[in-house]
Each structure stands twice: as structure tokens, then as C-alpha cells.
Amino acid sequence: MFEVEVKYRVPSHDRIKDNLKSLNAKFLEHTEETDIYFNSPVRDFAKTDEALRVRVYGDGTVVLTYKGPRIGSVGKTREELSVTVNDLDSLLEILRRLGFKEVARVVKRRDIYNYENFTIYMDTVEGLGSFVEVETMVNNKELINKATEEVLQLGDRMGLRRDWIERRTYLELVLEKQGVNKP
Amino acid sequence: MFEVEVKYRVPSHDRIKDNLKSLNAKFLEHTEETDIYFNSPVRDFAKTDEALRVRVYGDGTVVLTYKGPRIGSVGKTREELSVTVNDLDSLLEILRRLGFKEVARVVKRRDIYNYENFTIYMDTVEGLGSFVEVETMVNNKELINKATEEVLQLGDRMGLRRDWIERRTYLELVLEKQGVNKP
């Protein structure tokens, strides 16, 4: 499965939420997520545009995710592989023993909405501010461009300006803030 | 936690099982396990005496385990870190993407018994034959020698000859059979 996703940096969530209500989008849930990112001992994921992430949800659920390089031009489409894991501390220790190094933590609160085939995330990221992500899934690379266009059109209807699009990941934004710039 | 374990290669399980019954050891369960071993892209686990294993139980449970180097002289005591994972295929694919290479599969049927603080595994390993493992857990390195002696004494009472002790892992034995010898 490929995640087709466009992210916008927004001044505030208020007006976007009103627009979502007008579209009759359905509020799904509020989550709090802490993302712990690791770098590989064999290649620099910042250069290969990969990511290895341990996500901890507010309810304690732990998910390990590998993300392949972004393959879209506008959005941040990637191939994702995830597993749910039963023990955070053991997982972190296994990753360290295998040579993976923790590079950053991203802490965010999200309100999640559903509209047709789309998932909309209203994100507040610690130290970074407010964002909106509009996402859909496709099971075939050839559908990515069409899906990206649909995501952008929904963004327009939600009042998301195209010059607000932020192609960098939260991880990259956090690392830039820490003064660790991509080469 | 440290696993203190001694493994014996046995001609047959029959007499050992009779001895276990005389000791009033408790039969716990029968399991079937497929172990998939991976090597690291940064160091050769055969040389560093580490192991990364994905174990699949007969009921579909998937456990990822990192094992540190053996630290006892007689037994095969190691530090172990394990997590249960919800999706075998995704886990295998994540490991491959991270650069880990599958080196061997070990398929075994085990009858598991409990006696006092000990766990006894009567193993039949595909292509290798019959084995018995006697195991206990300690939470402190300083207790390893004492626990190893207790394990050996229980082995004596079960009729396990000390010259049957097999210090190599099933993985090593499978690799040797495949003609891939340790340097």
C-alpha cells in the first residue's frame, strides 16, 4: 500500500475545522503520539530518504514502521511497512543492540477526521506549530498521481493554500530546529 | 534476565521422559516453532556470537528476539531481548529493508515440562535429531555459575550424560549441515 499525503503548515486550525464541518467530515478520534526516529548503522537515512520510526500512542500501543524514500513530486508518498509490538523498552533496546541510533523525538497531538476516501490529520507538533495532513491510500504506484491531485483538490476545498505545502517531514523540521541540517 | 541453559544431544527422548515422570515434572505444552535467523549488515553475528531471530509458533504468534553473546563456559547463557509482533510478513520485510539477511530456518517440535525453577524442553529438530534443553532464569550475572551447576545436577538426575552436552546452537548445527562453517 502507498500512502498519498500532502502536508500544510497552517497559521491555525480554527478555520480549517469549520470548513471540515461544512463538508460533513466525520471526527474520528484524538490521539497523542510520540515518534522516536532511528538512523541506520549502514546508511544515513537522511540521505537515502528512508525512516525507521517507533510510534507510541497515548493508549500505550507501540508501532514499528519502516518508510521507504518519497516517490511523489508534490506530496510525500512513501511505501510503509508497520508492525505492532508489545513492549516499548525491549524494542528500543533491540534496535540499539542492532546498531540503530536514536536521532530525534517528535511529539504531537492530532485530531483525526474522515472524509470519503481521505483521512485528515489536524496536528499540533511540540516546538513546531500547527499542520494539516490530507491522506489517502492506493495499492498501486500508477494511481499515485491521480490520488495526489484528489488530495490537493480536497485541500483547496478545506481552505488550505498550496503555498502552505510543507514537503519536509516532521523529523526533518525537528532536526533543522536542532541545527542538524540535511546535507 | 539471563537464561541459564544446557543442551544435550540425546539418542532418544523415551528414557528421559520416564525419568521426568519419576521426578513428578509437570508437562506444560507441546509447541511447534519455526525460527528464522538473520545476519546483520554491520557485523557477522556468527563471529560476534549474537543472534537475531524471528520465531513463529504453531498458533501464529510471532516473536522477535535479539540474543547477546554466550557468557557461560558450559551452558549457553545469553542475554535475551524479545518482543511479540503482530504481523510476520511485514516484520520480515522490515528486517530485509534494514539490511538484515536471512541465513537459516530451524524447525522444531518441543514438549515442554516444568520442574521446580526449571523448564525442560524435549526438542525434535528437523534434519538434526533429538535434544533436551534444561533451563532456568536468573536476574543477576553473579548467579549464573550457581544456576548452571543446578541445571547440570538436574540433568544428572534426568539421566542426561555430561558428554552429551552440545554447546553449539541449533542455528550453528543447521549451518554446519549446510556446509557453512564458523570461521
Characterization of this structure:
The structure is a homodimer of 183-residue chains. With 183 residues, the first copy, chain A, is α+β, with helices and mostly antiparallel strands. Chain A has helices spanning 14-22, 45-48, 88-97, 144-157, 170-177, and strands at 2-9, 26-39, 51-57, 62-67, 78-85, 101-115, 118-125, 129-138. Chain A is globular and about 50 Å long. The two termini of chain A are 30 Å apart.
Quick overview of this protein structure:
The structure is a homodimer of 183-residue chains. Chain A is built from five helices and eight strands, in the order E-H-E-H-E-E-E-H-E-E-E-H-H.
Task: Tell me the layout of helices and strands.
2 copies of one chain form a homodimer.
Chain A: E1 2-9, H1 14-22, E2 26-39, H2 45-48, E3 51-57, E4 62-67, E5 78-85, H3 88-97, E6 101-115, E7 118-125, E8 129-138, H4 144-157, H5 170-177
Antiparallel strand pairs in A: 1-5, 1-8, 2-3, 2-6, 3-4, 4-5, 6-7, 7-8
Indicate the low-confidence ranges of chain A by residue numbers: none
Give the count of helical stretches of chain A: 5
List the strand order in the largest sheet of chain A.
1-5-4-3-2-6-7-8
Taking the alpha carbons of the first and last residues of chain A, their distance comes to 30 Å
Task: Give the biggest sheet of chain A.
Answer: 8 strands, antiparallel, barrel
Largest interface between protein chains, with number of residues from each side: A-B, 23 and 23 residues
Oligomeric state, counting identical vs distinct chains: homodimer
